[in-house]
Amino acid sequence: MLTFNALLAAAEVVIPIDISYFSLHGLSNLLETINLLSKKCGHSLVMNALVTNYDRRLRLSEEILREVKRNFNEHLFTSIISTSVKLKEAIGFGKPITEYSPASSGCRDYLSLSDEIIRGEYLSEKCEVPSLDAQSPRKIKEGVLFSCFAPGAMAVHLAGDFNNWKPEKEPLFNLCGHGLWQKSVPLQPGLYQYKYVIDGNWVLDPANPKTIPGPAGPNSVFEYE
Question: How many CB atoms lie within 10 A of CB 141?
Answer without folding.
Answer: 8
